[in-house]
Structure formats: structure tokens, C-alpha cells
Amino acid sequence: MAVMLSSSSYSLISPKVFFNVTISPSITRRYSVSTHSLFQFSTSPARSVQPKLISCIFTGSKRSTGCSDQQKVDTKLHVSVLERGIMRLGATISVILVIIQLTSPVPLPGWDVSFLPPAEAVLYSPDTKVPRTGELALRKAIPANPNMKSIQNSLEELSYLLRIPQRKPYGTMESNVKKALKIAVDEKESILASVPADQKEKGLEIYTSLTDGKGGLQTLLGYIKEKDPDRVSVALASSLDSIAQLELLQAPGLSFLLPAQYTNYPRLTGRAVVELVIEKGDGSMFTPQSGGVPRKAATVQVVLDGYSAPLTTGNFAKLVIDGAYDGMKLKCTDQAILSDSGIDKSIGYSVPLEIMPSGQFEPLYKTTLSIQDGELPVLPLSVYGAVAMAHDDVSEEYSSPNQFFFYLYDKSYSGLGGLSFDEGQFSVFGYTTIGRDILPQIKTGDVVRSAKLVEGQDNLVLPAEKI
């Protein structure tokens, strides 16, 4: 299912699946089977023929394209009861073989499978390793020291290994942590050299906590040797949190230059946090899933990632500061919570579609990603609570000046690789980190009572005047 979001409307469209069956001519040597238009065959991948009724009997004669009604009558008059029984049996067997071939991944002898297309590794692999939480996506998006990224990648692998039921691969986990620890010790000088001079003391403190502190790599290694999955999970989260803190110190600004035509736009050169207080429009209450007293208003926090989407986050942060979302109503679909599209179009900047592809050093502008070709964004949409801008109502090469949405990712609406059908089509600029349990309780008519930039205002660069 795909969700088409624009600044003026939204709709849901179910995906269409097409099956194309092609049979080599070599299989039809002597016999024909009635299919009654159940399947459409073609004699080559590039040319199709109209469905037709193939010969109505199982025959040993030369190949024919069909038979007339008179021929059918003549055949029935001259074939004995025994022969007709044999022919029916043969036809039944042939139909069974066709069904087996269509439902089996193993080709029968004599079939030419050279025309089969290669598998789509991204869309159809259930093992596609894209971040499944906002926290993981945000960690991966930090443009930090290569040694720190190597440490991070070794530890992130543990998150996948811990999901393995029953006998977990503790040997592999131990090897990964030892590798990370060795890099941390051997490359200490290089890691700390990437921290700005005014942050050296804080950087050293975080580094020491990562290598030798409580909840650091040494502690994590000990829990792995004890084969205690619960403690491993807690220590892993602590180590990854220290890595993220150290990487943020190593990345005080953008690692690329913005295109000249966009230098007069608002831009966010790092991270920021926006807090939205949402109130029920019908007077009902929010009920926290973790317990507590039901309340009329709930808080949702969104971390904005300027490293991957500096223009989109810059525009959004400025709108928040200007109070554009205070008192705004929300509307909901099964897959998204959208801000009201009735805001004055002159409020906000016409920001081009901005997507950072995985493995690249700068975002693409006015360009969507081809997921089928293996292109994945650094900030995936396929995460519950992802925050993105809707499309402009004039051109999908631009985001709406002010309409955003929370994406309520549901794997049942996704492809076999676990990716949303709209992956790579929108400017994702952040993730909900606090209040994810509130999102499913938001209904059409609920109101954003206030929106505030609570962290990262120093990273927001505003133009002298609007272009």
C-alpha cells in the first residue's frame, strides 16, 4: 500500500502485482492441454500472444494451434471408450505438471530458464538491513571519524545477532566487541584528534567511559562471556549511546558545501530537538502505554537531522520558532498523521526534495531514489515515527513549504524486504524519539497546542532576508 502525500490532499493506493509466465516452445512437442484462458502464454519474453483455447483433447498428432468443432465431433465418434479414458488421464497429469511448475521454484527438465530476470535484492530480501528505529537511523547518519564508524558498525551487528532465538552466536558477538575495543585502543589518538579543541575534555571523558567505564566495551565483553542476553542488551545500548555522543562531538557542522542556489535558505548544520504538545480535540484523554494518569495533552519530541537534510530541517526549525504550528489541527490516515494543509502557502520556504543516499557524502536535490536499483536513504521512511515533509501540490520535485507528517510505518503495508512502497520518495528529516506511544492515539481534529525548538538553536543558520 502506498501513501501519496501532498500539501493539498492525501490518498491511499493499493500496490498492483503482475505475474508474467513464459514457456519455452521446446516443451510443447507433441501434446496440447486445454487451459480455457486460465493462463496467458507467450513464445518469447519480448512478445505476447492473445489467450486462446488450446486443443481440447490430449493428442499424439503433430503440433496444432487449435481444432474445429467438427474435428472434436469426429474424434469423439472414432475414439474408443478406453482411448478416451487414457486421454483424459493424460490431460489430467499434464495439467498437474503445469500447476506444479507454476508453484515450484525448481524448473522441470527441458524448461529454458535463461530468460528469468535477476532477483531484486533490496525489495524482495527479508534480510534487508535498514535501520528499524529512529535512534539507530540517527546514529548511522552522523558523519564522524572513520574509526568511530568502524567501532559502531561492529557493535550494531550485535543488535541483529541478539534477535536470533534460542542459541545465540556469542562467539561472533565476542569477536565483534574485541574488534571494536582494539580499534578504540589502537586509534585513540586519531579518535580524539577529531574532537574540536574546546571539547577535548568532554571527548576524553566519553572515550574513557566507552572503553573502560560501567556499561562500556569491557563490561559488554564480560556479559557476552557470561552468555547473559539481558545484560548484553543493556551494555550494548550504553556503549552505542557513548559512541553517538562522541561522534556528535566529532561532527560540529556539515561535511559538505550546499549548492550555491540554496545558500540563502535557512539551514540546520547539526542536530536539534523539537517538542510538540498535542491536545485532544474532542476533550478525551491520552493514555500512556507505560502507565500513569490519563491526560488531556501529551508531549512528542522529534530529533531533526541537519547532517542529512540541512535545508528541510532549517525550514522546519524556523517555522517552529516563528510559531507557525501553534494551534494547528492534525488529520490522520492509517499510515500518517498530517499537519493541516490550510496554512498560508507564503509561510515557509519552497525547499527542493532533499534526500541523502546511503554511502554518499551530500544530499540529492529534486531527485527520488530507485529502491529497486539498490538505492537506500540514510534517513529511511520505513521507521515508525519518521517525520517528513509532504510533497508540494504543484511539483513533486519540491517539498511543501510547511506541511509535514508523522509516518506510521506498518510492515504489513510494505514490500517483502520490509520497505515502505514510498521509500525514497519524500524528504525525511527526523524521527520521533519521545512519545511514539502517543502517535497511534492521535485522531483527526487533535491540535498542536505548541511547538518549540528546545535544543540545537545554535545549529540553525538563518538568512538575512527571505529569497
In short:
With 467 residues, this protein is an alpha+beta fold.
Describe the structure.
This protein has 467 residues and is of the alpha+beta class. Helix content is 29%, strand content 16%. It has helices spanning 69-78, 81-103, 134-141, 146-161, 170-186, 188-193, 200-212, 217-226, 229-250, 310-321; strands at residues 2-5, 10-13, 267-268, 271-279, 297-305, 328-332, 336-339, 354-355, 364-365, 386-391, 399-407, 427-434, 447-455, 460-461. The chain has an eight-stranded antiparallel barrel with strand order 4-5-12-10-11-7-6-13. The protein has a two-stranded antiparallel sheet with strand order 1-2. A hairpin with an 8-residue loop joins β8 (354-355) and β9. The longest helix has 23 residues, at 81-103. It is globular, with a radius of gyration of 30 Å. The model is unreliable at 7-68, 70-79 and 104-127 (pLDDT under 50).
Indicate the topology.
Elements: E1 2-5, E2 10-13, H1 69-78, H2 81-103, H3 134-141, H4 146-161, H5 170-186, H6 188-193, H7 200-212, H8 217-226, H9 229-250, E3 267-268, E4 271-279, E5 297-305, H10 310-321, E6 328-332, E7 336-339, E8 354-355, E9 364-365, E10 386-391, E11 399-407, E12 427-434, E13 447-455, E14 460-461
Antiparallel strand pairs: 1-2, 3-14, 4-5, 4-13, 5-12, 6-7, 6-13, 7-11, 8-9, 10-11, 10-12
Helix pairs in contact: 4-5, 4-9, 5-8, 7-9, 8-9
